[in-house]
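Schema walk-through. Below, the input block comes first and the output block second. Nothing else is stored per chain. Lengths vary across the set, and this one has 266 residues.
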Amino acid sequence: MSSSLSLAVRDCSTMLRRNLLHARRYPSLTLNLLLTPIMLLLLFVYIFGDTMSAGIGGGADRSAYIAYLLPGLLLMTIGSTTIGTAVSVATDMSEGIIARFRTMAIHRGSVLVGHVVGSVLQSVLGVVLVGAVGVAIGFRSTDATALEWLAAFGLLVLFATALTWIAVGMGLVSPNAEAAGNNAMPLIFLPLISSTFVPVDAMPGWFQPVAAYQPFTPAIETLRGLLLGTGIGHNGWLAVAWCLGLTVLGWFWSAAKFDGAAEQRP
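--- output ---
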């Protein structure tokens, strides 16, 4: 039992190193995906910041809007990064490397685990980068405690894990890398229709359910409350429930599609 577990861990570590080497050798995809949240951060802060802050009742205060905006863009960063995961998985499946792995004495799930862990690590690095840009332009978290910072980090990792498993499933059902990128676009689109930029209450009444009943909004509100040291209400439980539900769904979906798709592709 322990021998089988150690072999599985070894194979997963090998696949993780493989994916990290690919990311290091071909950083353009990751960097291009990170540009979207960074450009949105700079655009909304420096061009719309005063107006947006006044519109949500904070007065014409750009620094207040940075504090409101950054948590949502951190989660958008995770969504952007996981698109690269869908593309990477689809590429592996279409180029036949999975068929070669299946002829080797390696743990069957190590390929997917390597993709997931590698993507989560890249997501965390992306969040650190975007967060550093936010701090550089004025974001401050003076009221959050050390425990709240730890909880915020845990939420980011949990959210990244959930979206990554969904992205892996999207990559497995896509015929090629281009289709995988298109299929994973909702992971960037959903934050745009959440509470990232304005409160849900400020949206038209008919649109509020669309923004409220999706995974990004409760996660954003929870992260915002943790980073700013304010209340999170019921959003914390909703965010964790979404993360766990998406993780389980993505894992079962990916495992099922991996076994079927790998046998059909060269």
